[in-house]
Amino acid sequence: MKTLNKINTVIFLLCITLGFAQQTPAPVQSKDFAIVGATAHIGDGTVIENSIIVVSDGKITTIGPEASTPLTKQAMDIIDAKGKHVYPGFIVANGTLGLVEVDAVKASVDLSELGTYNPHIRSIIAYNTESKVIESMRPNGVLLGQVVPRGGRISGTSSVVQYDAWNWEDAAIKMDDGIHINWPSSFTRGRWWLGEDAGLKPNKKYNEQVKELSDYFAESKSYNKGDKKESHLPFEAMSGLFDGSKRLYINVDDEKGITDAVNFTKAQGVSKITIVGAYQAGNVTNFLKENNVSVFLRRVHTRPELEDDDYDLPYKLAKKLVDADILVALEPSGQMERMNSRNLPFYAGTTVAYGLTKEQALQLITKNPAKILGIDNAYGTLEIGKSATLFISEGDALDMRTNILIHAFIDGRNLSLETHQTELWKRYSEKFSEKK
């Protein structure tokens, strides 16, 4: 019976693997091509009407207005994009795409590890390029992302990937870009299911939890300054925070937690800091600016958390941070985060309705995350010498009504925009469009 059960399990997992198979990654660019006539949204606030973009060997070699940019058409393919729009590929910050396929199937969940302090846990080696969820990002222009572990006080180390690859080695753009910690909450809620008051109250263990984190940092620094006769992988992973090669991402929402976390990390000698979530960051904009702290702002499409918050606080917070000259990018965390990552451009579009210009909103999902993640030398904007990771849309890509892609490229490779969702849409649209 045990043998039979094992066989059935293997067959089940095989079926899952085959059923989740992704589109075959696009081949390396073999011929130069030019995108002609489109409105080019550079990603830094600049817009070029009737543009020409020439791509060779996966990089942008020419970009400018059609009227003043020479073009040798005989040597390349021409994509006529008149009336359409070109954008840099959108970037998902603080995501878990590729770490979970089906939440209800435990074997497909590789989101976190046991333990409290896991800086040495590398999310990249668990990244599944065959994920159908990842495949469904590309038709909305979401082409790059940060793969982030969850859980514990120190969750682990993230990496940055592109969303069209055979394996995690092919996908990786930047390995081990930073370490993620969950800052202790300064407030807790009562356990209502035990009859306790569900209201907010001070966390009595807050100082103790911060002290434990401080001790861990101190031990890590001491180890990395020592002779390292005995290997300690968690402490070794922390070294990048102190020499500036890794960024520290701190998940914290409340005002006190934000200020305490920044002061703590500055005291520890950590120079690269990003606050993740940052629900009350609007209350400490001057403090964040003075300390050169960037922000991964929580999902825009959420409700206010506190009863005295403005009803539209989540929608207008991005503008408040941008107006304060803080480097801010959008992230999709929250309920159904992986599936909702495809809505990243529409989160940015909502910030336009609440005060940002369209080009400012575009920077929240292109230039700004690329700069924070340390990949802005190659991605995030349309510039000569940078990767041709971009897409062509029928209309405004921040509007769900007109975000209709006709082409998408990663490093100049022409991607398939077909997914299991588009296949089902075509299948059933044909069925219900039949005349009876």
From TrEMBL:
Signal peptide segment: 1-21
Gene3D superfamilies named among the record's database cross-references: Metal-dependent hydrolases (3.20.20.140), Urease, subunit C, domain 1 (2.30.40.10)
Superkingdom as given in the UniProt entry: Bacteria
Presence of the UniProt keyword rRNA-binding in the record: no
Coiled-coil ranges per UniProt: none
Keyword match Signal: yes
Keywords on record: Signal
Ranges of residues in domain Amidohydrolase-related: 348-396
Protein name, UniProt field: Amidohydrolase family protein
Organism: Winogradskyella litoriviva
